[in-house]
Amino acid sequence: MGGGDLEDVISAAEWIKKTGFIDPKKVAVAGGSYGGYLTMNGRDQSAGPVGRGVPIVPFVNWFTEVENEDPLLREYDLATMAIR
């Protein structure tokens, strides 16, 4: 989580800045749920290309997320995230 997908967000931000079609200071990212988590990573850990972000209902603690989510989603998350 937040590995290759975060690299994709950063690469996209860098690419769009190079096009010259936008003001590089106005690049932003937004997303909900996991997209909100990824938005926060893109904003806080990218060291540059993503200057602004709008996380919508992000989860910030994987352990409390799994503990409090719907049981069916929990099983899916545990299977796909290898948290067990």
List the helices and strands and how they pair.
Elements: H1 4-19, E1 28-32, H2 34-44, E2 52-56, H3 62-68, H4 71-81
Parallel strand pairs: 1-2
Short structural summary:
With about 80 residues, the chain is mostly helical.
Offer a few descriptive terms.
single chain; mainly alpha; two-stranded parallel ribbon; 4 helices
Word description of this protein:
The chain is mainly alpha-helical. 54% of the residues lie in helices and 12% in strands. It is built from 4 helices and 2 strands, in the order αβαβαα. It has a two-stranded parallel ribbon with strand order 1-2. Strand 1, helix 2 and strand 2 form a beta-alpha-beta unit. The radius of gyration is 15 Å and the shape is elongated. The model has no long low-confidence stretch (mean pLDDT 82).
Give the H and E element order. Answer: HEHEHH
Biggest beta sheet summary: 2 strands, parallel
Rounded mean pLDDT is 82
What's the overall geometry?
A: elongated
SS content category:
mainly alpha
Distance from N terminus to C terminus (CA atoms, Å) equals: 15 Å
List segments where confidence is low: pLDDT < 50 over at least 5 consecutive residues: none
* Estimated helix fraction: 40-55%
Helix tally? 4
Beta content: 5-15%
Multimeric state: single chain
